[in-house]
């Protein structure tokens, strides 16, 4: 069983297979289930992602009305031909947004690695698909590659916003997506790891500060930027750029930063954007009464 | 390692909006329900840390109740669980606790019917994965490996009877804990194994004298 990215990359290099294949082999060993069953299960997840994404692209609204409809706006904008940053990038962003809008509306999604960060991996996958024309099996492999990198983060650090902030959720998701994009585009396992490192480095320190405690503001747009970050980093890695800090050390740094992050910035809706005047006003509009202030919370923690 | 499977990372398929605060909460509620073996009459739900401050926004309340109603994480009726609980006469009371837990997403569920109560402390560790920390003050350590729990009389030979059955089926034990409240009273065994456990194995353990119940904790 691989314990870190370095071992994962060297396993893939030694056996001359994709990272996806290393993850599949490990899953067979750990679960004791046959390969076909494991592939079929991942395909079901892929189907859920595709349905969620389509639902989001046709327009949804959350119960609070805070989110929904932005994926449609972006698709219309792409069709207008006025997009500046390239249609593939905007398509990925709109599909990441679509998935998270469905999540915010309490729709069915597949967590990758969490629900709050569920847009990045499918968003980039279904956008890159338009250019690379992968087979269904290659799309399933994309998810296994993402799983392999997420597995390392979850076991050596954390993928929970409450434990490590948004860098642990959208940061991990973006890193996973970047690695998978590289592999699907024909990059080496080493380049996949570089893409993950470059992505995560640029998400370090990102706090989890959801307005009113809802997975809506800023979560949906953080998924958008996670997708865009992943695609840019994947291109950089494919161009031959490497990370001076190795991927495993970036993951360790993310964990250390998460542990020192104040509780107010780890999914408690006590700080950051949640504590802005507008954040508090929206919270009061949705739940009627404002929740305890940060000061009260800290006093309670000490006593 | 806390996470064992690719599907802990890509998955679960679930109703949004949060894997830790919604899907994980459904799973904790469901474990408590399966330990109780029936629908409780009343449940006191004590929320700690991030669960206490953001449970309304993430639907953690709806999710815990959905789990207590034995729903899975992808059940589309999760948003209506409070209404459904009311319809089936399961009383639910929420308590926002100020105490700071070891892990931010901690919940204590106290399930009660006329004749019995059960207290379960669960933690949602991220991505929908959960850990059950305590059952009726018995401290447990469970991760993602297949695991089951045996409730039995605290008496010589019971542990060896259970492990003999596992050995007969060539099932290797990865981790095992035995604890009890008082000598000779009710005891609990938690056994984590390396492969999937068939129902037949659990049924055979259930048949043993001095064993009161067997519950699958992690499939």
UniProtKB/TrEMBL annotation, chain A:
It holds the Pfam family SDH_alpha. Its EC number is 4.3.1.17. It catalyses: L-serine = pyruvate + NH4(+). Residues 15-274 form the Serine dehydratase-like alpha subunit domain. The keyword Lyase applies. InterPro entries: Fe-S_L-Ser, Ser_deHydtase-like_asu, Ser_deHydtase_asu. Pathway: Carbohydrate biosynthesis; gluconeogenesis. GO terms for molecular function: 4 iron, 4 sulfur cluster binding; L-serine ammonia-lyase activity; metal ion binding. Keywords: 4Fe-4S, Gluconeogenesis, Iron, Iron-sulfur, Lyase, Metal-binding. One of its GO terms (biological process) is gluconeogenesis. It comes from the Bacteria. Its cofactor is [4Fe-4S] cluster. Belongs to the iron-sulfur dependent L-serine dehydratase family. This is L-serine dehydratase. It comes from Robertmurraya siralis. The lineage of its organism: Bacteria, Bacillati, Bacillota, Bacilli, Bacillales.
From TrEMBL, chain B:
Residues 147-219 form the ACT domain. PANTHER family: L-SERINE DEHYDRATASE (PTHR30182), L-SERINE DEHYDRATASE, BETA CHAIN-RELATED (PTHR30182:SF12). GO terms for biological process: gluconeogenesis. Keywords: 4Fe-4S, Gluconeogenesis, Iron, Iron-sulfur, Lyase, Metal-binding. NCBIfam families: sda_beta. PROSITE patterns: ACT. This is L-serine deaminase.
């Amino acid at each position: 069983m691989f314990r870190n990215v370095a071992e994962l990359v060297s396993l893939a290099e030694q056996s001359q297979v994709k990272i996806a294949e290393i993850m599949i082999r490990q899953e067979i060993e750990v679960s004791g289930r046959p390969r076909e069953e494991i592939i079929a299960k991942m395909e079901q997840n892929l189907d859920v992602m595709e349905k969620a994404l389509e639902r989001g692209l046709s327009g949804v609204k959350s119960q609070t009305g805070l989110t929904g409809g932005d994926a449609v706006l972006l698709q219309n904008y792409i069709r207008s031909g006025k997009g500046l940053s390239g249609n593939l990038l905007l398509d990925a962003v709109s599909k990441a947004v679509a998935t998270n809008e469905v999540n915010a509306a309490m729709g069915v999604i597949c967590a990758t690695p969490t629900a709050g960060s569920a847009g990045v991996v499918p968003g980039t996958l279904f956008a890159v698909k338009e250019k690379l024309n992968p087979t269904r099996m290659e799309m399933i492999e994309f998810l296994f590659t993402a799983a392999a990198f997420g597995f390392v983060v979850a076991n050596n650090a954390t993928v929970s916003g409450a434990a490590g902030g948004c860098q642990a959720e959208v940061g991990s998701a973006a890193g996973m997506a970047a690695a998978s994009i590289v592999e699907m585009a024909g990059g080496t396992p080493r380049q996949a790891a570089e893409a993950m490192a470059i992505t995560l480095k640029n998400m370090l320190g990102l706090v989890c500060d959801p307005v009113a405690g809802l997975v809506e503001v800023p979560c949906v747009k953080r998924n958008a930027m996670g997708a865009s970050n992943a695609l840019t980093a994947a291109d950089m890695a494919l161009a031959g750029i490497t990370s001076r800090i190795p991927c495993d050390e970036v993951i360790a740094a993310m964990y250390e930063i998460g542990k020192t992050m104040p509780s107010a910035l780890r999914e408690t809706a006590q700080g950051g954007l949640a504590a802005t005047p507008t954040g508090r006003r929206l919270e009061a509009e949705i739940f009627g009464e404002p929740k305890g202030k940060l000061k009260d919370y800290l006093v309670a923690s000490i006593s | 390692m806390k996470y064992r499977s690719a599907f802990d990372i890509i998955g679960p398929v679930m109703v949004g909006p949060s894997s830790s605060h919604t899907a994980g909460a459904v799973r904790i509620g469901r474990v408590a329900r399966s330990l109780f073996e029936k629908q409780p009459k009343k449940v006191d739900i004590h929320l700690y840390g991030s669960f206490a401050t953001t449970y309304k926004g993430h639907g953690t309340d709806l999710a815990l109740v959905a789990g207590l109603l034995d729903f899975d994480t992808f059940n589309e009726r999760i948003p209506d669980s409070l209404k459904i609980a009311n319809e089936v006469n399961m009383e639910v009371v929420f308590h926002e606790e100020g105490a700071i837990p070891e892990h931010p997403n901690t919940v204590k569920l106290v399930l009660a019917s006329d004749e019995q109560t059960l207290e379960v402390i669960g933690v949602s560790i991220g991505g929908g994965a959960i850990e059950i920390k305590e059952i009726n003050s018995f401290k447990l350590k469970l991760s993602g490996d297949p695991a089951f729990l045996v409730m039995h009389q605290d008496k010589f030979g019971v542990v060896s009877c259970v492990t003999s059955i596992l050995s007969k089926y060539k099932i290797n034990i990865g981790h095992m804990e035995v604890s009890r409240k008082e000598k000779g009273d009710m005891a609990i065994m938690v056994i984590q194994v390396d492969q999937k456990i068939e129902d037949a194995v659990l049924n055979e353990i259930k048949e043993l004298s001095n064993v009161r119940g067997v519950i699958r904790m992690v499939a």
